[in-house]
Write a structure and sequence with these properties.
The complex is a heterotrimer of chains A (327), B (289) and C (249).
Chain A lengths: L4 H4 L9 H12 L1 H4 L7 H21 L10 H18 L3 H23 L4 H21 L1 H4 L13 E3 L2 E3 L6 H23 L1 H11 L1 H5 L5 H27 L9 H14 L6 H19 L3 H15 L15
Helix pairs in contact in A: 4-9, 4-12, 4-13, 4-14, 5-6, 5-7, 5-12, 6-12, 9-10, 9-12, 10-12, 13-14, 14-15
Chain B lengths: L1 H32 L6 H42 L9 H23 L10 H4 L11 H23 L1 H11 L1 H6 L4 H27 L7 H14 L4 H21 L6 H13 L13
Helix pairs in contact in B: 1-5, 1-8, 1-9, 1-10, 2-3, 2-8, 5-6, 5-8, 6-8, 9-10, 9-11, 10-11
Chain C lengths: L3 E10 L2 E11 L4 E5 L6 H9 L6 E6 L2 E2 L5 H7 L1 E3 L12 H12 L10 H17 L15 H14 L4 E5 L7 H16 L4 E5 L3 H7 L2 E6 L2 E6 L1 H6 L1 H11 L1
Parallel strand pairs in C: 3-8, 3-9, 6-7, 7-8
Antiparallel strand pairs in C: 1-2, 1-4, 4-5, 9-10
Helix pairs in contact in C: 3-4, 3-5, 4-5
Classes of the chains: A mainly alpha (327), B mainly alpha (289), C alpha/beta (249).
């Protein structure tokens, strides 16, 4: 699907661009084959998928509802802790860990969203940052439960039993990557469908023109709240996958630095496009991996990346594709 | 016991003073330019490092005077070169820009001055305790509070009695009208950003004299400053002043009773304010958008 | 029983008094024009009716129901639709998408996270119907932001119509239009009034449009209702001439 085709994401153009989409999935499916050839490792691809999912989830809010949260790391981190704590203290069940992690982040976002749905712009951003820091603070001070600043260890993702079949995702082989890819695909499909539905259209309407949306009969605050909650839920799902990927959860997964990184991935890829955040995540993860292996001053380069994207590529990598509808 | 309480209360006052100074600078920039300056804590660090470099040449007092001005000048230049390019765009871009700047400045400090803590020498007279009975309170602590009070008073006087200050205040309320009155809004915003950075730089010099220097010394102050603004009410400088004092004192008093919760109480105050009075103590209804 | 019954509404913003107790009642099927010099409070009056903000005093009843404090989106679901003086549309979406969103809300689907094939087709049919009515059939796939001013106004009216309104509030529908565009919009409004029997309240400056369309005219001046009557009565009213027509001429 062409990025711009989802700018509106309202109806499928007669000539749905299936070719780029098929190519994308082919590339993703073949990762274990080609990634080692170019010097990558599968866990890196896992990171891309997970952060890409977080960013696509975040972009439901930023790019498709037009509301800026700068604290989405909170829900990502809560998802990670939810999954980690489940595996460590409750049961060695990967699906349960994902479910509880997603619920923890999603419910926290839903409750917090109630407080702030009337706020807008910079104020909204500031309050979301502050709430993110509350979660960060809790995670590193509640030492007994979370392991404090050192992070939560002592859990491992468990194989998934499906009747007689066992999905062995505990190892480091491609099985876990494909598991991640499966979850990613399902989540992305859900979000894609959502954006084609009336509910998704109401979000886009709010982004386009809040006043018009209100006078079409859309209760704007309530729909922003819904969008925020859904967005937090998907980001939390990504966070729970992150805990599974690393067998580890730490407070930095809640820190506003990660929030900023999620935002930059989204903007760099193209916040008005559906797939942009995934591309942004891929570029960011690979760059960060590469730069931090080359120099200790990687922070400068990441900072410079922020500045360059903002000043010179504000529409993002996919934002430069030709628009649909301009015929 | 009394000493512990006194110690904590003075600590709280000092921390509150820092929150106020940081938050006022942030608030100035936020109110006039609608930019959340993530790099504000890094301007604080730069102020401290400038003082570190200058002290051997001009002494502590000279550094105290010059370093904040340098930080302010740098803020002015950064605004001219970078920040102003994103005013007309979605606020997400200004956030990302200052976020990136924060990374760059922090890394630059680490590169130039090293990752480890550095001391900033202060005059002997200031490092002495107040009295044998109050051995735990140095004159420097009193001095810090006094300087902050002077700086805040100076800022409010500047905003009330100078032409530029009046224009900044008017621009905060209604930028469009101010610009139609022929005020050079672009210059006004640059100056305003400079003044905000100057306040951060001043905090940096003061903080460095107490706790020394390190590249991320501003980070711990950034979040409480945000909260001071939220609690005080976006759009109101007086509110920010109140908010900073409130969370500083609340944190200090909590330290007396239950030290582990001293940071938590700041967040609790924010939550209470958001629940009960979402626009903040002195925030205007129209200012919260 | 009037369809829209506005009773002594007042509105002040701080020390500025915009409306000082205006009453007005509109019968079903009526086309009412609200006129008055700039700053008379016309748009404030519209904002009160449509729920943009609540009045400082007075009540508003719509179809027998007190809606004075009802939020805007609830008034929409009761059958009130409005357009704005400065066109409010979704500029980066196509004409079709603009109308589709309105149709979806009107169908009660706004919370649906998915939609079946048949429901989708039904909505699509409704969209085509409205586009044809508003004369935008040819431009369905164009982005609204790229259309000419007159077509953008038409798109906004089309969105309002998609809500199946019982009362249509039009704020200066011909503002900024050339003669040809004004004619087109006027024809559309008349069609809605005569054929679809829609109750319409409109604010307008163009006297040709007003006298061509209106059943009755209400004149506002300095936040008060100055006069009300048929176009002929208003044209003959001396107070109106002094306050408004005189100044305009």
């Amino acid at each position: 699907m062409n990025g711009a085709a989802v700018v509106a994401a309202i109806r499928r153009p007669a000539e749905t661009r299936w070719l780029p989409l098929a190519a994308l999935w082919a590339v993703l499916l073949a990762v274990p084959l080609w990634l080692p050839l170019v010097g990558g490792y599968t866990a890196l691809a896992g990171r891309v998928l997970v952060l890409g999912l977080a960013a696509i989830g975040f972009n439901l809010l930023l790019g498709f509802t037009g509301v800026m949260s700068f604290g989405h790391a909170a829900y990502f981190g809560l998802g990670a802790y939810g999954a980690g704590l489940t595996l460590r203290y409750l049961a060695a069940s990967t699906p349960l860990a994902m479910l509880l992690g997603t619920l923890l982040g999603g419910v926290a976002g839903t409750l917090f969203g109630l407080l702030i749905a009337r706020r807008r712009g910079v104020y909204f951003a500031m309050v979301t940052i502050a709430f993110g820091q509350v979660c960060y603070y809790i995670a590193y001070s509640w030492n007994d439960l979370t392991g404090g600043f050192d992070g939560l260890r002592g859990f491992r993702r468990a194989p998934i039993g499906l009747g007689p079949l066992v999905l062995d995702i505990a190892g480091d082989g491609p099985a876990f990557y494909y598991f991640l890819l499966g979850v990613f695909a399902a989540a992305v499909a859900l979000m894609g469908l959502l954006l084609r539905s009336p509910l998704g259209h109401s979000f886009i309407a709010i982004r386009e023109n809040e006043r018009r949306a209100r006078f079409l009969g859309i209760p704007v605050e309530r729909h922003i709240w819904l969008s925020f909650s859904i967005s937090c839920g998907f980001t939390a799902l990504a966070g729970s996958l992150y805990a599974l990927l690393n067998n580890f959860a730490d407070p930095l997964g809640l820190h506003y630095s990660l929030s900023g990184e999620i935002v930059i991935m989204t903007v760099m890829g193209g916040m008005r496009t559906f797939w942009g955040p995934l591309l942004g995540a891929a570029v960011f993860v690979v760059l960060q991996d590469y730069i931090s292996s080359m120099t200790t001053n990687w922070m400068s380069f990441i900072g410079l990346l922020f500045v360059v994207v903002v000043l010179f590529f504000p529409r993002g990598l996919l934002g430069f594709l030709p628009r649909r509808g301009a015929r | 016991m009394l000493q512990v309480i006194l110690y904590n209360v003075t600590n709280g006052l000092i921390i509150g003073a820092f929150y106020v100074l940081m938050a006022l600078g942030l608030s100035l920039i936020l109110n006039l330019s609608n930019v959340i300056n993530f790099a504000h804590g890094n301007f604080l660090a730069l102020g401290g490092y400038f003082a570190f470099v200058l002290t051997p040449f001009v002494g502590f007092w000279g550094a105290l005077l010059i370093s904040p001005l340098l930080a302010g000048l740098l803020g002015f230049v950064v605004e001219r070169l970078l920040i102003r390019r994103v005013y007309r765009r979605d606020p997400v871009y200004s956030l990302l820009l200052t976020f990136g700047l924060a990374f760059i400045i922090q890394d630059a400090c680490r590169y130039i001055w090293g990752p480890n803590g550095l001391p900033l020498g202060i005059p002997d007279a200031l490092s002495r305790p107040l009295s044998p009975a109050l051995f735990f309170i140095t004159w420097y602590r009193v001095f810090m509070v006094a300087i902050v009070i002077v700086a805040v008073a100076g800022l409010f006087a500047f905003l009330r009695h100078t032409r530029v200050g009046l224009r900044i205040r008017a621009g905060t309320l209604d930028l469009e009208t101010v610009s139609t009155l022929g005020v050079n809004v672009r210059l006004l915003r640059s100056i305003n950003f400079g003044v905000g950075s100057l306040l951060a730089g001043l905090s940096g010099v003061l903080a460095a004299g107490q706790i020394g220097l390190n590249p991320n010394m501003g980070d711990d102050l950034l979040m409480p400053s945000f909260i001071a603004i939220i609690v005080g009410g976006v759009g109101s400088l007086t509110g920010t002043l109140l908010g900073g004092l409130l969370i500083g004192l609340a944190g200090a008093l909590t330290t007396v009773v239950y030290p582990a919760a001293s940071e938590a109480v700041i967040y609790v105050i924010m939550a209470v304010v958001l629940l009960i009075r979402p626009r903040g103590l002195l925030g205007e209804e129209g200012m919260m958008t | 029983m009037s369809f829209l019954e506005v009773d002594a509404v007042a509105k002040s913003f701080g020390s500025l008094v915009a409306l000082r107790g205006v009453s007005l009642s509109v019968q079903p099927g009526e086309l009412r024009a609200v006129i008055g010099p700039n700053g008379a409070g016309k748009t404030t009056f519209f904002n009160l009716i449509s729920g943009f903000f609540a009045p400082s005093a007075g009540t508003i009843r719509f179809n027998g129901r007190d809606v004075t404090r009802l939020p805007a989106y609830r008034r929409v679901s009761l059958g009130m639709a409005r357009t704005f003086q400065v066109t409010e549309v979704f500029p980066e979406l196509s004409v079709l998408e603009n109308v589709l969103i309105a149709v979806e809300v009107a169908a009660g689907y706004r919370l649906r996270p998915w939609l079946g094939r048949s429901a989708r087709a039904a909505l699509r049919g409704r969209v085509d119907e409205i586009l044809a009515l508003a004369g935008l059939g040819q431009k369905a796939d164009r982005l609204v932001g790229e259309l000419a001013h007159g077509d953008q106004r038409a798109a906004e009216i089309a969105m309002a119509l998609a809500l199946r309104p019982r009362l249509l509030l039009l704020d200066e529908p011909t503002a900024g239009m050339g003669d040809q565009e004004t004619y087109e919009i006027t024809r559309l409004i008349r069609r809605l009034h005569r054929d679809a029997k829609l109750t319409i309240v409109l604010i307008e400056h163009d006297m040709r449009v007003i006298f061509h369309l209106a059943d009755r005219i209400s004149v506002l001046d300095q936040g008060r209702l100055l006069a009300e009557g048929t176009p002929a009565e208003i044209a003959a009213n001396e107070a109106v001439q002094a306050a408004y027509l005189g100044k305009a001429a």
